[in-house]
Design brief:
InterPro entries: Mycobact_SerProt_Inhib_Rv3364c, Roadblock/LAMTOR2_dom. The protein has 144 residues and is of the alpha+beta class. It contains 3 helices and 5 strands; from the N terminus they run αββαβββα.
């Protein structure tokens, strides 16, 4: 249970769907690896889910850098961005993973954050993303 196999992405999507059902102000959510790869999504088409995963990864990385510089820790619990008509929540979801949720304007951040934390705590081992193996050194002749 140290990571999620590729065939488990669909299993994780139902968790995100359930989160959206429990908190109706949620427009959609994505589970992503720390390097921005989409692991599961609900409420978005594939292209939008992949774009949100990449954006969430970038914001999470910036917050970690800020923490390292100004807080003596790279631990990030949650990021909240208020957009014109939406709120974006990004939370650490386990080893090499994050959960991003887009909620409607007027959503109560305490409720959205609480429900995200509850979901993450309940299933954290299944949300982990194993570290990627180093890239293999290819044949030099192939690069020519």
């Amino acid at each position: 249970m140290s990571g999620v196999a590729p065939n488990q992405a669909q299993d994780l999507a139902w968790l995100l769907r359930r989160l959206g059902e429990e908190v109706p102000v949620i427009r959609g959510s994505v589970l992503l690896s720390s390097d921005g790869m989409l692991k599961a999504a609900h409420g978005f088409d594939r292209a939008s889910a992949e774009q949100l995963a990449a954006l969430a990864s970038g914001l999470f990385s910036l917050a970690r850098s800020a923490g390292t510089k100004f807080d003596d820790s790279n631990e990030v619990r949650q990021i909240v961005a208020e957009l014109k008509s939406s709120q974006l929540f990004i939370a650490w979801a386990g080893y090499n993973s994050a959960l991003a949720v887009l909620a409607r304007e007027g959503a109560d951040p305490a409720i959205v954050g609480f429900e995200m934390a509850r979901l993450i705590k309940a299933v954290r081992p299944f949300l982990h993303t194993p570290a990627r193996p180093p890239a293999a050194v290819g044949d030099r002749n192939l690069a020519r």
